[in-house]
Predict the structure.
Amino acid sequence: MKDSKKIKFKNRLVLSAMAGINDHKFCSRFPAGMVVLGGFSADKKAMEASKKARLRGRKEFIFEDPLEGIRGEIEGLIQNYDRMFAVNVRSASEKGYLKVAEIVSDFGGFIEINAHCRQPEFLEIGCGQSLLGDPRLISIVEEVSGVCPTIVKIRGGLPLDYKKLAENLKEAGCLILHVDAMIPGGKADFGLIREISEGIFTIGNNSVVDVKSAKKMIESGAKLVSAARAVLKDEKFFDRLLVDELLSSSVSLVY
Ligand SMILES: Cc1cc2nc3c(=O)[nH]c(=O)nc-3n(C[C@H](O)[C@H](O)[C@H](O)COP(=O)(O)O)c2cc1C
């Protein structure tokens, strides 16, 4: 029988990916149980998409050599940060994900496959949300999960069988589903968090703005809860959530 492994998160909070913002300096400022670096583009085609997105005013990380850029960000983070980290990645090729997984594995983090982004530049090259419902997502997860612990970031609100998707991803080796439970028009779909969390370790995401909304994610079954925009509004956002006993409690992923 295979030995089980355990990854401990110091508290329930996660800093969610923000392209062009979540570099190592930004991430290391927050007392979350896990921070997500990136999103980063891992191969040439994805990097071209990042450049195009930047030209129309979006924030993006641009690296001459994407893999060296990502390695540099991880090295920078771990000098000042002793908690868990993940690296959010888009890539047009399977090889791009695999190469990032190899780097992440050298430093003991997670890779987060971005099946979430809906910027046209990335959808056009088969990245982000276009991976949802594409069998390529399963084969990517099968490959990278053999190299390092794997998270898949997905978006709610689409006409998909989310329970089945979660089952398939888990079977392929995904350890954590990061669920942006957005409902078109705002707020979060806690029913979706409940449904998916029955089968897999989840991070609940969207519209977490205070202790009450963060706890609701955990009470709906998510093991961790993430935030992006609220952190931009308030540097001390996570400190304010950590006064709560449940949100400041540790949790372990056993696999
Ligand atoms: C400026 C900005 C950049 C983002 N970039 C990424 C990204 O690169 N990858 C990703 O998976 N999600 C990205 N997101 C989505 C967030 O991680 C999060 O899922 C979303 O904002 C909903 O959470 P919130 O309500 O806490 O902001 C971005 C969000 C913002 C505001």
Summary: The pocket of flavin mononucleotide is lined by residues 16-19, 21, 38-39, 59, 88, 114, 116-117, 153, 180, 205-208, 227-230 (CB under 6 Å). The chain has one domain: 6-250.
